[in-house]
Amino acid sequence: MPKGYDANVSYLDDHELVSSFGTVRSNFESGDASLYRACEWGQIRRSHDTEVGGRVVGKRAAVGSQAILVPPTSSAVHPQDLAGRPVAVNFHRGSHYLALQALEGFLPREEIKVVHIGGPQQRFEALRDGVVPAAALMEPWITVAQKQGYQILTEAFYVGSEIASPEVDTDTYDALNRAVVKAVRKLQEDPYPYLHHLIGEVPPEIDAELKPSDFPRWRLRFVDPAPYPEDQFRRTFDWMRSWNLINEDGSTYNSLVDNLLPFAALMLVSGTLAERWGRGRVLRAALAAFVVATALCAAAPTMELFLTARALQGATNAFTTPLLVAAISDLVAGARPAKALSWFAAAQAAGQGLSPLFSGVGAALDWRLAFLVPGLCGLLLVCFPPSRSATLRATTARASWRSLANRQLALACAVSFLAYLAAVGLTVLAVLRLNDRFALGPVGIGLAASAFGIAGIAAAPPTGRLLRTRGPRYTGLVTDVAMVVGLLCAALGTSLPVVVAGIVLVGAAVTGLRSATNALAVTSAPENRGGAASLALSAQFFGGAVAATVWLPVYHALGDRGFALVAVVPVLSAVVLTLTGAVGGRSANPAARDLTAVPPRGR
Asked: Full-prediction pTM beyond 0.85?
């Protein structure tokens, strides 16, 4: 990036015309550099755009600041005075993103105008020469400008992060961080002996007398490098998407997407394999692996290890959930399976709805605490696993792949996919709307989202009765209607109670749909209940995995109307259930296991 501003080159106002790696040859993409530090937002965008496998590996030590300044003669005295006026930034760098975040606290988004000038010296010179009325600057240019009478309208500090290429191994990165920590200690003690590095960026013709004592101490902040926590990534990534600063292609570290895709793919086969290997031993092994994976997530020193541990968590779940559905169906007799399946669905809804509350509160203290509750729950289950009798199969027949090819299971998979496409759409978009419309923070959003899980628990008794008396198809139709109403309330409600009521309705509806699809699945293949349950659950999680990719662009393009379009999905589900007629029948009660029979070997 050339330092001087060329007055013959007009500025750009479309960030898509500028590469996130800059307008000149990128040392990182060309392989000349393997690691570099920059602003948090830009690094997320670069890890998305990279062609050499670059990934964000941690937070940097330097805590930067950017200020929006105006010339001494400017009539602007506060950020509101910049409505509709161009502010010079460097697209896909800290000045770009911080200017947007700083100004949107004072102005509607449509009145914020940022334009690409280039690096900090170019922006200062464009401001000095009257090309732009305001510019976002960082040190040393904030101090240079203030010395010459320029006025700060707003200033903020921001997080930086580090992006590394795949050849940077853990040992190398750890060694670099040890050196950085030593440097941080020296800078925290006294940064002034090192400010000649900043001063050297300013040409003498702009300020020949710049000296270390000109810099205020409070603006020079340095902290130890640290991992980049998931909750912070999610918040930043969602904000970037809301400004269309990153493509909507599912390239997200959001656990809802990254962890569900391998989970869903593995579930295509996990249920049948587990039925063949033995439910008890598979459940015990999967629970132990989940505890190990959760501990690795909390202790992971690098992003690569963290993502690997998250994938392992998903893999362990693929071998537990379908077996639990199958075991419930084999264990209980008479009218009890409908009630048991509805309570199991309620427990799933509770976990989905309450996890943001526990994780949000824990992560507010330390990102590693987000894994405390699931880790403790997993450890408890390892110490007190299901009994041998609870995991026995009702049949001695070998679990067959062929038995899974039937219309009833296909119906269960279709409804399951649609249910989660809508339900996860609600959980993703409700978070954005609660923040955008009602300015709720992480704890407030977590409390509102917890209504989803609470409603799921409360819906278990009526769902069980409905499933027992009217069957899974009718239960699915009723809960699809409830989901439509809930989605419209959450999407279009003008008051917080109405939105929360919508979340409650959807939470209750999800319990009904889970119960209905599980009942359809396990009764479709009695000799391979685990395999049938895992196929239906795989469809469910595939629906959840694509939900963010499907609905976020719609929401950002159409706002509340885009959110409301999610209600089309349960309508489609109801149409599928209606057109299938008697498929699935009225019975949700599979034949119970004869507990007096000799148990099959190896189970």
From this structure: no
